[in-house]
Amino acid sequence: MRNRLVVRGGQVVLPQTVVTADLWVTGETIEAVLTPGAETPAGARVIDAAGCLVFPGLVDPHTHIQLDTGVYRTADDWAIGTRTAAFGGVTTVVDFATQFPGMTFEQALEARLDECAPALIDYGLHMMVTDLPSDPDEARRWLAALRDSGVPSIKLYTTYRPNYYADDATLLHTFRAMPPDMLALIHCENDALVSGATLRLVEAGQTAWAFHGQGRPPEAEVEAIRRVLYLAQVAGAAVYIVHCSTAESVRTVEAARRDGATRIFCETCPQYFWLDDSRYAAPNAEHFILQPPLRPAAWQVNLLDAAPALSAVSTDHCDYTLAQKQEFTAFTQTPGGLPGLETSFALTYTRGVHHTRERQQAGEPVRPLSLPELARLMAGDPARLFGLWPRKGAILPGSDADLMIYDPAPQATLRAADQHTIAGYTPYEGITVQGRVRTVISRGEVIVEDGALHASPGRGRFLRGAPFAPPPARR
Length: 475
Prior knowledge:
By secondary structure, this protein is α/β, with parallel strands linked by helices. Helix content is about 30%, strand content about 20%. It has 13 helices and 19 strands. It has helices at about 80-85, 105-115, 135-150, 170-175, 190-205, 210-215, 220-235, 245-260, 270-275, 305, 320-325, 345-360, 370-385; strands at about 5-15, 20-25, 30-35, 45-50, 55, 60, 65, 90-100, 120-130, 155, 185, 240, 265-270, 310-315, 315-320, 405-415, 430-440, 445-450, 450-455.
């Protein structure tokens, strides 16, 4: 007989509204959303969620677990990375398989799936494309076969010469070869502007961590986004701009949509609406080395202003250790990336919901992020964009029973000592967040409860993404 589970009396966050309800789970799927007090099925385990928010399990569409860049390698593995995710309420990650030069897509996917085998939660994959055939017909066949293998999304970079860099001709060639039901994720920074700024700093002997932000100026990101959107429009390709680090980046995407571009999407990350570049002049500046860097406050993303244009709040999680971060004192040699899977929801809830409610209560004309909007950004839209909806990303009958029970009452101060990464630090050290992840359920199985892990490596499954289909237009 399949396991039965009832999550009772929580504030259940549905795609369009929030209701007090009981959730019935049978086996791995949600059976029903019922009014409170319904008779409990015989033999079912009951979880009391009264006073708590019940969200769909989070879907993070941009992580780098066990990352190998060809230059640096994070020290984690898929057991560690997905354990970290689970403690943050993340029940699905969409990570990357890297096509190193000389590899076919099939070889890259097979190698990455071997690495993913110890996962505790479910996962999908994008393909980092570095070596697409130059013949247009052959390139189309490669990309169509990749989509058919359950990987309907690719990633391209406009910087990182020579490892991942794609020039404009390569971008346009790839966009034209993509099937219409495939999505391209793009890391947007103008490589010439970044290389020139960095070279000037190196020549002046200004390579300390304090200069990192100056080496990758915000104009480089905005220019690259505008160029990529134009090339995608010419080719009719669907694109997703990753880790928008400036308000102007998000506004650029929003303006293109207003002009009729319906197949463009973007995300941001908590670091870009919590932290600014003053961190580079403070102690522990190495904790904040990442690409794109933290921005001056005047350029910073405002989550509430950006939310209508965003399709996701992701993490760009990279679990480099403190020893790796401190091996060199030059920003040009320090690996870029921050751990964030465990803290992303608490930070986004605190900034978007709790802080804005406080401001509203103080008389400011500000609208808090609604709970369904928060669920859209951290579960629903990522699942839709990457072919996982409605199995993932929503609390609906028939969906996987992936649930996160969040207690909004307590406050917590983020400390590295309390995290489940192996980084040895958190960029959010000392920040107070509102609420805590209390219980995490993955496919009907309680995997985290009251700070304890109840899952073993290898229980996660590879999710074959369906071909890309744009989410329905929001009202």
